[in-house]
Amino acid sequence: MRPKQQEKPSVLKGIGVCSGVIEGKAYLVERQKISAPNHYIKKAQVPQELERLERAIELAREQLKSVRKKVDPQEGRDIIYILNAQLMILKDEMLIRSITERIEKERLNAEWALERELKKIEGLFDTLEDKYLQEKKNDIDYVVERVLRNLMGKQQESISQIQDEVILVAHDFSPADTAQMPKGRILGFATDTGSKISHTAIMARALAIPAVVGLENITEYVNTGDFIVVDGLAGEVIINPTSGIRSKYKEKERSYRFSAEELLKSKDLSAETMDGFRVKLKANIGLIEEIPSILDHGAEGIGLYRTEFLYLNRKVLPSEEEHFHNYREVVEKIAPHSTTIRTLDLGGDKYASEIELAEELNSSSGLRAIRLCLKEVELFKTQLRGMLRASAYGRLKIMLPMISEIKELRQAKEILEEVKESLRTEGIPFDEKIQLGIMIETPSASLTADILAREVDFFSIGTNDLIQYSMAIDRVNEHVAYLYEPFHPAILRLIKRVVNAAKGSKIKVGLCGEMAGEEIYLPILLGLGLEELSMNYISIPRVKKIIRSITYREARNLMEKASTMKAASEVENLIWKDIKLQFPEVLS
Ligand code: PEP
Ligand code: MG
């Protein structure tokens, strides 16, 4: 446990990303790779070092067995398989003998002996192509890390193995972490980094748990076992609150739940303004498990299926069969509505660290998303084949992310045609009229939307990235999160341009960035003439209520006024004044 700063503040301010309030015990996730002390030992110290090693290995065995005991034998078959493989490694006589020899002959301390042996094994594995053996390398890596931690008296971090109900506190979570958070046990989370549109925040909404990100230094103040309140509405974390403060937050949580339940009562009503302008409200999903919830919240289909989650928490790429079965399940479950499946959009803060695809994948402006797919054509074709095959079982549309220029679009279309042709030759059915659309999320795509519109069936505006790239801000950086300004005149002009281009070419245009689910932006999005909005499902009932409470004429007027304004803050004031006065209960 790290020593914490002496003077703990009682309230930390960050960015609330998922509504709701929760209290509970904190669990601090420390993710730094441990650095082990390396030194030579004297001959007399050898027996003691061997004993330390033996104890650390024995402890690792016990830890793995105790984890295995807690895993559900049916649902957790894969996990048990991995744990068994790791237990076998801990029994590997050759491995243990090599480490022991390093201690005895080279006089290395146990940590160093372990690390040296690991390096040697890794070197051997790097020369192998076999995927199965590559997986083994990761198991060895994991086991060695566990033994190292035991030698140094440090705890092992694995979110999926947390057994208690806790609120996670961390510097940040990767999407791989959020995807494996055990349902029901993670009550909420709080992180140092992040913004409203970082993928950690997006996953918090998908999991429907209160979260606050961008707290800058919560990990310095909170330790495992501290009692905290996470207020996702106000973006605050309260550390070790008094009983009076706790009851105030309990009340806030109760009233939030009550209004959410009230809103759900209108889930089956249509999203239509008072003067008859109809908007389709769809859901963004990352995991198949979200489908029942999105339907319960009145979603009229899936406007964005982020398929990158299929590639996370694994060491080998998903096969065509896996893609096919996954997409087929989605389209069948969502019928009669349609599903827009986005092709792989790995990169930026959606970095898949376990699969080594491209070194600079973690850069938001690097070889990522469609750029990666056009380079790794086989990977792209595998996914497209899965999608096309699934299109025979339901209404499926394909969407390409991060298009920057028409050349990329044309290249992707050529590959898609090739895949279709091969399916035809093989007699495998797919929807011959399948629609292809693109995300408009780079400034270059927005400014050339009229050109792009002639070659696709639909647009979906991805404002998370569009704002990131237009304002030159990093999505995960809490220090520039203030520049995430959907009302900025530049952003409003870019969106308007895209909508006009789509209407000019008579293709559909929707918006699937996080702003679609935030009440304050809604009048302007309606005024811009957007007929489809796709968002996290939690927001759908609230958004529907606003749509049903205003007129399209009024929204257009507001948009007209907003387009003459010079700063985002002016537009925000306009909306608050105009709408909040009329509907105080809606925009609260
Ligand atoms: C976007 O960029 O607005 C978007 C919806 O995609 P993602 O958040 O997955 O990048
Ligand atoms: Mg995007």
Folded structure, characterized:
The chain is α/β, with parallel strands linked by helices and about 600 residues long. It folds into 3 domains: about 10-30 and about 155-240, Phosphohistidine domain (Glucose Oxidase, domain 1, 3-Layer(bba) Sandwich), CATH 3.50.30; about 45-150, Orthogonal Bundle (Enzyme I, Chain A, domain 2); about 280-550, TIM Barrel. The protein has 22 helices and 16 strands. It has helices spanning about 45-70, 75-90, 95-105, 110-125, 130-150, 175-180, 200-205, 220, 245-265, 290-295, 320-335, 370-375, 375-390, 405-425, 445, 450-455, 465-470, 490-505, 520-525, 540-550, 550-560, 570-580, and strands at about 10-15, 15-20, 20-30, 165-170, 185-190, 210-215, 225-230, 235-240, 280-285, 300-305, 340, 395-400, 435-440, 460, 510, 530-535. The strands form 2 sheets. An 8-stranded mixed beta sheet has the order 1-8-7-3-4-5-6-2. Strands 9-10-11-12-13-14-15-16 form an 8-stranded parallel beta barrel. Strand 9 (about 280-285), helix 10 and strand 10 form a beta-alpha-beta unit. Helix 1 (about 45-70) packs antiparallel against helix 2 (about 75-90), helix 3 crosses helix 4 and helix 12 (about 370-375) crosses helix 13. The longest helix has 25 residues, at about 45-70. The mean pLDDT is about 90. The structure holds phosphoenolpyruvate and magnesium ion. The site of magnesium ion has 5 residues, from helix 17. Magnesium ion binds next to helix 17.
